[in-house]
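Exercise 7. Predict the joint structure of the components listed below.
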Amino acid sequence: MKIIMLGAPGAGKGTQAKKIASKYNIPHISTGDIFRANIKNNTELGRKAKVYMDKGEYVPDELVVALIMDRFKEADCKNGYVLDGFPRTIPQAEALDKALLENGEQIDFAIDVLVPDEHIIKRMSGRRACVGCGATYHIQYNPTKTEGVCDVCGESLILRDDDKPEIVQNRLTVYHEKTQPLIDYYTSKEILVEVDGTKDMEEVFSNIVNVLGK
Ligand code: AP5
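Solution:
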């Protein structure tokens, strides 16, 4: 099964993608996580991506497409994947379709997690990310057992630089301009599924499972 997660920054794409990956035994591929790992390891890709990410802007298409095409070559992708944060622009979606078509494949579902902008800024200021393993929490909706400490690896938690309110506002602007057109793109391919992302995390997941199948 090949799935794309769509939705504004902070809509809950990553949260749901992790659950989907675990239930359907497919890899969760997050371009944001891959960039953050590269930034942490101070790679050339990480240094290039950081310039854009710190401002809340998109990393250029050619960098993202090259990265994702490389990732698809790994063995764990053979039974599908859930893509979180890719594609984000029409050129990225077209590059993905072209690559899949060459192997006679296609995306099965594009899941749009709908959350109004006014919810997003509040949500983002409460998100905490682990500096060690990248796990994400929310101080109110998904707290850790011990405050400030990752449940998975025990490392400390931070507010991501791009989760500061002024940057989130820019990410929302960029999202509406560049990613919203993908909604029409996948609607026309008849694979778009909309879920209400303002519901409780488990309810959102159960609505997704109802569409994907048990
Ligand atoms: P990325 O890391 O992908 O950021 P994003 O898309 O902006 O999405 P987020 O990770 O911020 O949010 P999410 O929707 O996954 O929400 P989450 O589940 O964490 O990308 C970062 C940057 O990298 C981009 O800005 C760009 O610069 C660059 N980049 C990445 N991919 C790119 C591409 N393809 N092209 C170009 N540039 C690219 O949830 C958010 C919070 O809400 C959490 O605290 C969570 O616990 C909580 N939450 C989740 N669901 C619920 C719920 N139902 N109710 C209450 N709280 C909830």
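Discussion. Residues 85 and 93 are 11 Å apart (CA to CA).
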